[in-house]
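Appendix B, Record 12. Input sequence as logged:
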Amino acid sequence: MSKLLVITHPEVAIKPAQPVPAWGLNAMGHGRALPLGIDPLLGENDRSATGYLPHEEFEAAANAFFEQPDASFCGWETAVEA
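Logged structural output:
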């Protein structure tokens, strides 16, 4: 039987100059990964529409996204659509 382990909030190497889908795990994230194969198609969420957001802006956007799941934040897809 195969198992799929999904890490929903990995420790990523934030690189503002790179598109978000190209970000990988940082050293802590690699240290926490189990010795399993990694499917590159199951990478970081595609946040191309948002691009890089500084931490405080990201937190505000995430809060709005989940607090109002039927509303679009800055024209992005709603939480319900996602």
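The mean pLDDT is 80.
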